[in-house]
Specification:
The protein contains nine helices and 14 strands. It has helices spanning 45-55, 71-78, 122-126, 145-160, 193-198, 204-211, 256-269, 274-289, 297-307, and strands at 9-12, 16-23, 37-43, 60-63, 65-68, 88-93, 96-102, 107-113, 135-139, 167-172, 188-191, 220-224, 230-233, 240-242. The strands form three sheets. It has an eight-stranded mixed beta sheet, sandwiched between helices. A four-stranded mixed beta sheet has the order 3-2-7-8. Helix 8 (274-289) runs antiparallel to helix 9. It binds adenosine-5'-triphosphate and 2-acetamido-2-deoxy-beta-D-glucopyranose (5 copies). Residues 45, 48-49, 171-173, 190-192, 257-258, 261 line the site of one 2-acetamido-2-deoxy-beta-D-glucopyranose (NAG). One 2-acetamido-2-deoxy-beta-D-glucopyranose is lined by residues 83, 85. Keywords: Kinase, Signal, Transferase. Residues 1-25 form the signal peptide.
């Protein structure tokens, strides 16, 4: 069946607001002091991944519950490149995270609020016309594991009855028991270094070799390991790896993960082999780490695709 837009992706996850205070040192209780910089920005893994995909020129929809309050318009504006028409407005405060960065050693202290925002339910998902999508990516939220598994089962059912099945990916980040059930649900699984360590494995090879047994047959397991690069196991064959591509100077590592995940999705969606996709993702996220924001990354990706003879 022909898709209306062959590049369309749906991301399912959280949209929230981050308030980031960068301080010379961790603040002392009951004092009144200045900080270096305070900024507000959109956040949430689902929101960030969809945002980076849109920066790369992909047409992407985000399915999320959009909270209300003063920050709602601000957050929607900073997500203007992502299509939010499938998302739902709910009358609960927008989830907000307060991040205190201690500039001495970069430590991040994070306070979350907004637990009253309802999680997405299967009913919210079944309204979606699945024929519009080639790929659906899930933020593997521990507080919503059951609903996410139901949504994935719904896609699987759809996939059984079509010649054009949707590829499902999920990210497994936190050190929580509740998210282990996600391993065997997706075609492409992103697992974090922290989650690998949570299972007691100390290297990405060891982690992948063992955790691949939790995935469904034919799945791809991908693990980024900070400045060491990234590793992945294809459906058949040995583990592949890519080194990191460090920039001349590290400017901003926030957002390296989004860039890496989004580049992998972008590249795999265009049937680029796993090894080459990993290499491109490490190059693009390495470039990201060397700058603030995402400008110029789209041109770099397009360059790699043209050089490798891929038609987009
Ligand atoms: N300091 C660095 N130098 C070069 N490349 C880096 C650096 N940090 C991250 N990267 C690149 O970004 C990719 C993803 O980084 P990382 O493993 O830190 O992701 P993450 O933990 O998911 O990030 P986040 O903190 O954004 O959630 C790495 O595989 C690597 O290619
Ligand atoms: C989301 O992106 C913003 C930049 O727009 C960044 O500051 C923040 O750390 C990112 N959050 C996550 C969870 O990656
Ligand atoms: C968002 O998607 C809807 C359909 O899902 C479409 O009608 C609308 O034009 C899209 N908006 C943008 C800005 O592309
Ligand atoms: C960062 O420095 C503070 C002291 O300012 C210390 O208490 C804290 O443990 C350090 N954190 C890390 C992650 O090194
Ligand atoms: C679902 O989307 C497909 C592809 O865009 C379209 O052909 C079909 O008419 C849509 N179905 C409904 C019920 O809107
Ligand atoms: C990318 O995937 C990794 C591995 O699961 C995860 O730790 C990270 O938070 C993801 N980043 C985003 C923005 O989804």
């Amino acid at each position: 069946m022909e898709k209306s837009n062959p590049k369309r992706i749906l991301v399912v996850g959280l949209l929230c607001v981050d308030i980031i205070a960068e301080c010379d040192s961790y603040p002392i209780e009951d004092t009144d002091q200045r900080c270096r910089e305070m900024r507000k920005q959109k956040g949430g893994n689902g929101a960030n991944t969809s945002y980076v995909l849109a920066e790369f020129g992909i047409s992407v929809d985000l399915l999320t519950n959009i909270g209300s309050g003063n920050d709602m318009e601000f957050v929607k504006m900073s997500m203007s490149s992502v299509n939010l028409s499938k998302s739902l407005h709910v009358n609960e405060p927008m989830p907000t995270s307060l991040v205190i960065i201690n500039a001495q050693n970069g430590s991040r202290t994070i306070l979350h609020s907004g637990q009253s925002l309802p999680e997405l339910k299967l009913d919210d998902f079944t309204r979606i016309n699945l024929s519009e999508y080639r790929w659906i990516h899930f933020e593997g939220r521990s507080s919503n594991a059951e609903n996410i598994c139901e949504m994935i089962a719904f896609i699987r059912h759809f996939n059984h009855n079509t010649e054009d099945p949707i590829i499902i990916s999920i990210e497994i980040e936190k050190c929580r028991e509740e998210i282990i059930c996600f391993f065997d649900k997706a075609d492409v699984v992103f697992v974090s270094k922290d989650h690998v360590k949570f299972h007691g494995y100390h290297t990405p090879e060891d982690g992948i070799q063992n955790l691949i047994t939790k995935c469904k047959p034919g799945a791809t397991l991908i693990c980024a390991w900070g400045d060491k690069g990234a590793w992945a196991k294809p459906p058949s064959g040995e583990i592949v790896k890519s080194s990191a591509y460090p920039p001349k100077k590290v400017i901003d590592t926030l957002g390296a993960g989004d860039t890496f995940n989004a580049t992998m999705i972008y590249s795999l969606m265009q049937n680029i082999p796993l090894q080459q996709s990993l290499d491109i993702a490490c190059r693009i996220s390495g470039a990201k780490v060397g700058q603030k924001g995402y400008h110029g990354l789209r041109e770099q990706i397009e360059d790699y695709f043209i050089k490798s003879g891929c038609v987009m």
